[in-house]
Amino acid sequence: MLVSEKRKRRELEIISKLDKLQISHVGQLMALNAGGLGEASRRNALRVLREMERDGYLDSKRIGVKLFRVRGGNDNFHGGMWEHTLLRNDFAIWMGREFFENCRFEVPIRAKGKEILRADIGILRGGEWIFYEIDRRQSKRANIQKIEKYKKLNLDFRVVCYRHRVGMWEGCKHIVVEDFKG
């Protein structure tokens, strides 16, 4: 296989992972071994991503860390949305390769043909959907409304939140961020 073919294959795999993640930092792409980045040093992985940006495949922005997205992709670089997206990505990666490959992000939940809510993550397990809500800093009122909607539809859902926010999700199954980001 020619070097140019290997490079193209690597770039397509990185773009595929980034397309699912929407926005990512190099550590997440390395954890997923996108395009073999997990086998490279951080410096080399950043070089590959810079080359892809130069070639017009990616956009980047530095907000505390260097973030990447597919050129023309969803604009989550503004406000706090990028932090929510990175937390969602970290959780999906932490759950393992099979989970990441099979889960869907931003899953619309419909009733009577109308979208009732949108789960941050959804995965089909044993013929049943399990939904995950990523809570970074929503208001307690918004959280209560989501709980009521999930319970009204009789759906299995879990909440991924910081330890100090567990009380805002009373009666729900929790996965604490500090347990996987520790």
Question: What would your notes on this structure say?
Answer:
It contains 7 helices and 8 strands; from the N terminus they run αβααββααβββαββα. It is an alpha/beta fold and 182 residues long. Strands 4-5-6-7-8 form a 5-stranded mixed sheet. A 3-stranded antiparallel sheet has the order 1-3-2. Helix content is 42%, strand content 29%. Helix 6 links the parallel strand 6 and strand 7 (156-161). It is elongated. It starts with a helix and ends with a helix.
Features:
182 residues; alpha/beta; five-stranded mixed β-sheet; three-stranded antiparallel β-sheet; 8 strands; elongated
Label the overall shape: elongated
Largest sheet: 5 strands, mixed
Strand order of the largest sheet: 4-5-6-7-8
Task: Give the helix/strand class.
Answer: alpha/beta
Number of DSSP strand runs: 8
Enumerate how many helices there are, as a single number: 7
Distance between the termini: 42 Å
